[in-house]
Amino acid sequence: MEASRSTSEEPWPVRVVSQKIGAWVARLGWVWVEGQVAQLSRRPGTQTVFLTLRDPAADLSLTVTSHRDVLDRGAPGLAEGARVVARARPEFYPARGTLNLRADEIRQVGIGELLARIEKLKRLLAAEGLFARERKRRLPFLPARVGLITGRASAAERDVLTNAARRWPAVEFRTVNVAVQGAGAAQQIVDALAVLDADASVEVIVIARGGGSTEDLLPFSDEGLCRAVFACGTPVVSAVGHESDTPLLDYVADVRASTPTDAAKRVVPDLAEERRGLEQARHRLDRAADHLLDREYQRLAAVRSRPVLARPEQWYDRHGAEVAALRDRAARVLDHRVHRAADGLTHTAARLRALSPHATLSRGYAIVQHADGRIVRAAADVAPGDALRLRLADGTVGATVADGGAA
Q1: Which residue stretches of 182-311 are H helix?
Q2: What is the residue-averaged pLDDT of the chain?
Q3: Domain locations in the chain?
Q4: How far is the CA of 340 from the CAs of 234, 347, 348, 391, in angstroms?
Q5: What's the topology of domain 14-109?
């Protein structure tokens, strides 16, 4: 019944499809795979161990089977949440239609190797600018609502809620409880972050967890979580572990709080402290206003005490006297100049009169002129019969030359 190709007229039976899938899967061969142990099952009476291996950065998992001796030899004391590296071969089970990995070697990833990988990821994210200080946002002074991502009924949740309410009783929280360690914790935190970031009433998000081992805090160094926080539109506060714990979330978050209690102090102000600050500011303002009023009052009193304002008529009297003195002085100067000019004019007139021909004519002399006005200066200038004009002191008379030309 098998054929090289299946058609609607000649379809393959389920067993043929299962065989072909198994053959394709077997072609992958042996591979090294890394993941986090989400579930570990040691069934009594069997030598087979079942592990659910989960991808730390995605919601994917595979079942791994191994002999008990392989697990005890390569990863003794393995527990759920640990990171492992396994050499396995994929196997497809046609009867159940499932895909498993059969491992012949399992190694637990040591803490040193985990830290080295985190350090490598840290350098990568830093080079991409996820830790840049200039991109970090300031927290709102008084958020109306705070988002909180933490473990259910955890000490971290209690610390944040209690201390925040003690500092500002009116603060509201929207809490999303997630797993904070183990397989799937990072993805749950990412999902909760997306929910709170989409809530327009949430103004700041706090991711909180108490202290723990390096393995317990691995979800907070997950690359997917770091990138989700970087892309978040709401400011994020990281409050994971104690002061000495520094997961990668601390570097990418907008604010790092040393503890969950410190996060509560950072996201909301202290009501009592703010009231004290307001009282102090009001007292300083009152003192400054009183000092300013006193200073201006003294300055005004000093201005009012000046003579120009105390007795303003003195100013007019003084300047009136100055104006009168200037006016008298101007009158005296003008009179003096007029008198001096008049004397000068009199003297000039006297000199003019002394030099004037009219004075000579007054003594009986006359000026002889031809009819055309030419002055006769010598007897030879006239001839008998010439008409002449004689200019006297009090007028002119006409004359005719009867005898002339003789010396």
Answers
A1: 185-197, 223-231, 248-252, 260-267, 271-304, 307-310
A2: 86
A3: 14-109, 115-268, 270-314, 359-400
A4: 100, 11, 12, 37
A5: OB fold (Dihydrolipoamide Acetyltransferase, E2P) (2.40.50)
Whether the pTM exceeds 0.70: the reply is no
- Please determine whether the domains at 14-109 and 115-268 fall in the same fold group of CATH: no
Residue 159 has a CB neighbour count (10 Å cut-off) of 20
∠ CA 119-123-128 to the nearest 5 degrees?
145
Residue percentage of the chain with pLDDT more than 90: 33
Helix (H, G, I), strand (E, B) or coil at 59: coil
Q: 61 forms bridges with which residues in the sheet?
A: 54
Q: Which helix (H) or strand (E) holds 69?
A: helix 68-74
Beta bridge partners of 52: 39, 63
**Under 8 Å CB-to-CB from 30, ≥6 apart: which residues?**
87, 88, 89, 104
Specify the 3-state DSSP secondary structure of 255: strand
Whose tokens are 């043929």? That residue is: 16
Q: Which pair of tokens denotes residue 113?
A: 């190797």
The mean pLDDT of 318-335, rounded to a whole number, is 89
pLDDT class of 182 with cuts at 50, 70, 90: confident
Contact yes or no for 195/138 (Cβ under 8 A): no
CATH 3.10.620.30 fits 115-268, yes or no: no
